[in-house]
Batch of 2 targets.
Target 1
Amino acid sequence: MSESAYDKLVAHARETALLTSTQDLLFWDEETYLPPAAGDYRAEQVAYLAKLVHARRTDPQVGEWLGECEADGLDKADSVEAADVREMRRDFNKRTKLPPKLVEELSRTASLAQKAWRDARQADDFASFQPHLEKMIGLKRQEAEALGYDESPYDALLNDYEPGETVANLTKVLGALRAELAPLVEAIVASGKQPPVRVLERDYKIAAQRTFGKRVAEAIGFDFNSGRLDVTAHPFCGGAGPQDVRLTTRYDAQEFSSAFYSILHEAGHGLYEQGLPADRYGLPTGEAVSLGIHESQSRMWENLVGRSHAFWKHWFGPLGEQFPAAIKGVELDDFYFAINEARPSLIRVEADEATYNLHIIVRFELEQALLAGDLPVADLPAAWNEKYQQYLGITPPNDADGVLQDVHWSCGLIGYFPTYTLGNLYASQMFDAAHDALGDLDEQFAQGEFQPLRDWLRTHVHQHGRRYGAPQLAERVTGKPLSHEPLMAHLRAKYGSLYGAA
Amino acid sequence: MSESAYDKLVAHARETALLTSTQDLLFWDEETYLPPAAGDYRAEQVAYLAKLVHARRTDPQVGEWLGECEADGLDKADSVEAADVREMRRDFNKRTKLPPKLVEELSRTASLAQKAWRDARQADDFASFQPHLEKMIGLKRQEAEALGYDESPYDALLNDYEPGETVANLTKVLGALRAELAPLVEAIVASGKQPPVRVLERDYKIAAQRTFGKRVAEAIGFDFNSGRLDVTAHPFCGGAGPQDVRLTTRYDAQEFSSAFYSILHEAGHGLYEQGLPADRYGLPTGEAVSLGIHESQSRMWENLVGRSHAFWKHWFGPLGEQFPAAIKGVELDDFYFAINEARPSLIRVEADEATYNLHIIVRFELEQALLAGDLPVADLPAAWNEKYQQYLGITPPNDADGVLQDVHWSCGLIGYFPTYTLGNLYASQMFDAAHDALGDLDEQFAQGEFQPLRDWLRTHVHQHGRRYGAPQLAERVTGKPLSHEPLMAHLRAKYGSLYGAA
């Protein structure tokens, strides 16, 4: 029997994955162990592999094989193979639709804009970054036009990270979230309560933090036989193949929660990666479906599990054994309050579970307005500060800690921010569904039982890869369309009891 | 101006180096940090990159560019460019001369033979390995014929590792070495003296071993800004680019010298790699010239420097500060004697400076006889044991600790072993030349001054890459052809004073 067009596509994609997984290793190594002087050559290695990968992915032969599959109706069935063909087509079109000149211009502009952004933040000088951002916004409009969209140019960009999501839907859901979240945060502030956060700022030896973090990651189901935990400056979950998932974190010997929750967060991503079907590695049905779904897995383990009272009912004892001096005399309820501090603050990456999504909503609203041309880049800092005052009740004292704090826009990442909040929304919605299916999760956590939840996620989320779109997958799992209600219910319950602020 | 054939060759080779350096990273990672379950996929990544690299290196276009350069006489000059063309031609011919079917057969046989070797060593059962070795020897004969040679088929294989060396020359030099070395070892044994080796087998904390090893590596000139030190099972010096040289070692918390001398040995290799001209990375003139010259650098720092009395005159104080409990009450002279213990033993990789080369000479003589057909594989174990008795005065009690101890022959590495002894010979010969040029090296070492030697090696050896052949380079550096005399003089002086055995 001769090899079918589908078989050829699969073989080609699997071979490409040998290169992309090698790129992943180059990246992981760069962020963990690369000697300082080796950065320039590493950039050359990365660029060369990117060239090889791009050539393979835009090879006209791929388009022909896809055409053959489609002529045979292979993309129409309700099967993993059909899903592969449909998703490969989407990827191929996306990659071949952009004029090479635009791709090159985007890449050059991003490179210059990132440098300009770094300098501008350093000098607290938005004006020097402004022309770069203006140029980038213009190019992103061109990109949206080239990619095509039904309703809004923003959709075209959003779909790069969150296939199937629309700005119309997000505006509705995030609007509803904001309307209920801002008053909750206000009530938290008004309560005047202060959790005893100093218990987290004691002597926590790094080696012991690592041991404890690995132990918890293992307990929630992360497999260190197919993974690792290393140190980096900006924590991420990487890897270099189907059985090779690498978590990273950073430690502060005087602070417990930062490294610990990084580990839990990245382990949540890692569980997703380890739950993807290894035998489909390199194919769409062996890949994560969207950034929002990915983030839902990390946020669920970090916040809904790892900041729950039930979780610490089990782990507070082992914690005390690991850090006897630091935990001596600390009560479980005080510790629980400390790791759930909520407080409006300026910096997104340091924000807590309650305020985080308001940071995202600010960015989501502003980048839409920028792309639509409703907000000139020159007016961005004022608009930023106004929204921070309105939603979070604080005004940044300078642009470095305000509009210049994130790297994203300088890289051309427009439509990326909302995936963080989508992650929180999906996490709560899926967690409720898991609760309905598995019984009292709190009871299980308090007993140290995390496998039922992990296995449920594996069955209902991880193993499907990109078989379903992100909104479709979430609706299959939870039986409901995206809503702000599960997240708000969770936040109200938690902060109501902690701050008396429901 | 249009790009010349030489320019095209250079650009092509540099692009290939982006892939080979990535292969190097895959290898380093596999030996250091790869999760246990990720081995199978890593093998696929390695095989795929090897395929890409092989296709580039045997691309007929390379042969055409080389032809153009040669037609212009570009290979004739006394310049780095001419050396590049000559060496690229040699590499290209070597890679294109072997019939693909033979390459495939060698690869398959090696894979099966390595597995069979592992099982045979485990079971102490040479007979089960014998057919694999017979097949391999037959294939290596075919390889030698395909590669071509002037005098002996062995030369063709030897030249893969030691370009320009001949079996005739090695037979002469190694024969002379054996004739003087065996009696020296006999005299050491006859002296009945025992160094106090137990001082090395105390409590040496691994973290402190690492700190001390890095400190010494840095002091001899290894640049950790362009390098690293990690842990592995079988120490090696690897890396992933021109500014990225990675040492590895393994630690035993109850033994000092094994990890320390691994670090010094690999740092010697590392100094060579860091001394190659970075701007010619990927070109022959940016590469190490031969295994023997490479080994001369590691052996010089490990043995001639690191096991000298002068070296410890400087470092014994810091050692005592690093390991106060272990070194308490130990005299410098006793420590010096302990790290220079000489004693005939069965296992090559555990052998000391005095006996090591006898292990190599056994293998060199036997593999020649195997290839020439003078020794049937069935008779190899008996021949092995006889030579061990004759040269080292001991007979292996079984084949596992005798003829089955090394992996090399199962991989098809015939002609490789002598490069270890070449390293020791070149090291002594170059060290004498450095001594003549730099004045009393012992005096410098005792003051902690290692930069003059490193810089001298950089100027006279490292920076030339493959500009000269190995024998030519050594003769340029030392003014003399290869000889056993400097090494014998060094060993006689050291062991004469330690054992009274000159």
Target 2
Amino acid sequence: MKETLTEKLIRRDAYFKEHYMPGISVDCVVFGFHDSSLKILLNKLFDTDQWSLPGGYLNKTENLNDAANRILKERTGAENIYLNQFKTFGNLQRSEKFFAPYTSDLWFNQRFISISYYALIDYNSVDPQMDEYSEACEWLDVADAPEMMMDHTVIFNEALEQLRKDLNNKPVGSNLLPEKFTMPELQRLYEVILNKELNRGNFYRKMKRYGILDKLNERRTGGAHKSPDLYQFNEYKYAEALKNGLQESW
Amino acid sequence: MKETLTEKLIRRDAYFKEHYMPGISVDCVVFGFHDSSLKILLNKLFDTDQWSLPGGYLNKTENLNDAANRILKERTGAENIYLNQFKTFGNLQRSEKFFAPYTSDLWFNQRFISISYYALIDYNSVDPQMDEYSEACEWLDVADAPEMMMDHTVIFNEALEQLRKDLNNKPVGSNLLPEKFTMPELQRLYEVILNKELNRGNFYRKMKRYGILDKLNERRTGGAHKSPDLYQFNEYKYAEALKNGLQESW
């Protein structure tokens, strides 16, 4: 007979208490870009039909950032992922209702703060892995993101807000796009993150002015339209430009 | 006979274990602006001659942000302070060496992560208060900040870096300056935060272009130079401008 979620939580309780720091969880908002859409990687919890951010706990013997990298690797199979710790959530009520049905001394039923990261990941490099409490791990469209358990919807919305602010200060483009891309693909990425349409001519001129792209002697072929030019980020110039932000600076 | 720091830590141990979440500390980098200098508020620990950021713990029955506000109020007497949670520090070795001399089951000798905030505060509204483990609580010049205990120097440097980045996105000016100020005072604030000299004409033109300042029908009198105009932030326009950042935006 299949073990229920509750039975599993009880069976694993002593393990968690022995190995992890109490009260501290780590959650990851994993963004990808595919088919002209911004995607988020979510788990669906066993027996409850609820979606959650991929997450885990801080091992007593590991650094905080190593925990985030380990959790991401467990869920996606990918390493060296771009991770940005953006906020720690610590309201009293953030997880209380969710675990109310379980016995009160259970690991999962204690108060937890969530140290939250967003991750930017090449969609094609990921092999989504369920954790042991989930029945699915899937990429969903950010535009139709489902309600999530606990305060995960709040965490997701703040991650998206932070990603918007970081467009000009962090290597968002190079971490979400494949190595070679067209100008319309880059513009589309900016549009789905900013959630607004941008003028094509203005976008093209700004990108040229920043001088962070190298135009390749290749074109994208096989599409319905005329073959567009391919570009890649100039790693050195991109890094230099991001130091001061991509806008006019002081 | 005066109680030593060690004796005090041992006497208070049970209290901490009963009331606070284990493993979680909250530290505050408190910035003020005075005499043309950027200042930071630091504690000097009893018996050790070491400086530390004002900090404390998360009560089991309070929200995380409420803990930061409570700790700041205890140290400064001030309320409604501008606080920005900027990063959580969680390296394994961050506090280990510091508490090595104490017995291993002591509250203070466990592994702690630090959820760190920076605070912007009107220098004149503060009445620095020592905590029970300190022999001093003082404003020091950021430019000659002393070495601090544990990883507090790292936390301080990252707070300063974040403050620089936030100059165009958060109400830094209005929280560090008195209500009325001169253009040279505003420029000086930007210069000490950015750690570089700015061209007076350019600075004046940019500030005018943003349209976030109201020029008052008053002048600063009594100084050695000719009386400069006084300004204040236009609260509504400042808030609107910060939404998109003060630089050119997409």
